[in-house]
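Q&A log
Question type: sequence-to-structure
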Amino acid sequence: MVSSLIYSMLLLIVFFLLSGSGNGITPAKEPTSWKKKHQGHQFAKGRIELGGLEIREISTLANASFDDVTLPSGFFHLGSRSHSALLTLTLIAREASHSNSSPALSPPTDFLPIESSFGTTFLWLPVPLPGFLPAGLLRSASTSKPLLSSLRCVRQEFFQSCDNTGNSPALLCFKNIVDDAMPNLDQITKLLQKYSPWVHFHPDERYLPSSVSWFFNNGALLFSKTDPNGPTPVDPAGRALPQGGTNDGAYWLDLPSDDAEKDRVKAGELSTAEAYVHVKPALGGTATDIVFWLFYPFNGPGRAKVGLINIGLGHIGEHVGDWEHVTLRISNFDGVLKRMYFSQHTSGTWVEATDLVYSTPGQRPAAYATLNGHAFYPKAGLVLQGEVEKGIGIRDDTAEGGQTMNLTARAVIAAAEYLGDGAVAEPAWLQYMRDWGPKVSYDVSKEVDKLVRFLPGKMKRKVRNLVERLPPELFGQEGPTGPKVKASWDGDEV
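Response status: OK
Response body:
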């Protein structure tokens, strides 16, 4: 099988070809007036017409091969748009007409095997004729190369390079698909009303979210390494915050200096909390990702489990400022929710729509926030990160019975770049690329000594070993950067 590195190189080569270097196919940008006129007119229509090419989408199980799927008359497989999810979205297409023009579809000349983690399902990268490009991967139940007639490649003139889809040539953008197959503002509003999640907080949660403006209004301070006058208050809209650039460590936000006010702000204010929504193309523009960002003034300490004993981790895990998110992936073909992403510390999990818990009223998907740490999970209960089989690890606790947050009522569209300049007024604080909390270092070994001083020797060793394996984010009390600095802002969730 072709290694992941070679596969990545092959994909980068295809992406380079699409960048327009030397091939003259980079499309000219359409005027803004044209975009506004056509935005959303093919969204959720079941098919997308691209001037002689009709594209549809089908859902198949990841362990099913293309040979198991019966297609409508005249349609051919273009390939899978994902090779990691349990339920895979596959594109099919037929030529509507090409009269005097060249054919839009052509069989590949060969298939290259790709490493697969699906056991008895094998993945293949199509090798196209000159002038054509693969739109996805082929799945097969056999180690034998598929028949060349199993799939079609698409003439390269139908493609354009992608800005917001993870830069994977297996997920190429079709021309104009972002302009007219992505939802317009009215359609986004309807999607928010239909699918915005309910967030369930743990009954013992002390550190709840707030709006960003509440945080600023209640004494948040901006620190600078170069300002001799000390910290300055932050205006409610964050307009005076440093804008743009990179996180150079020169600025950071912190809680009020007064101890009583500090404790009050740490607790957040759920009645003011908002979900800051980022809408962006996914899977080459054939899907829409709706990302809900929640802000917490404070992230609480971690908790560990060692056998039957639960241990609070002192200051380990605490930091000022906490950004967490969930993502809805909507198909642009039918406007239906396909899966949901739950951010969990430095990673996350995709869950198929059929496996989600749906909350009433409204039968909308539920997201359960962990106690103190605010990671999101699709179901209530304990998730142990560590040596699960031995009952040793960091506790991620979620539960029913706590306060809830209706994201439909609290959704604020903060960014949707594909709609064009001025379509969505981004809040000023979104351009603040520095830390939302200070970095305060402490002696981890001393913290551990405090935790284990009353434990028997064997337990002490287990706790020390557990702490040594904790992710770096739990040390140093370092505040996070904001949403626009995250790798997923311009790319796909990983």
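Response note: The longest strand covers residues 287-299.
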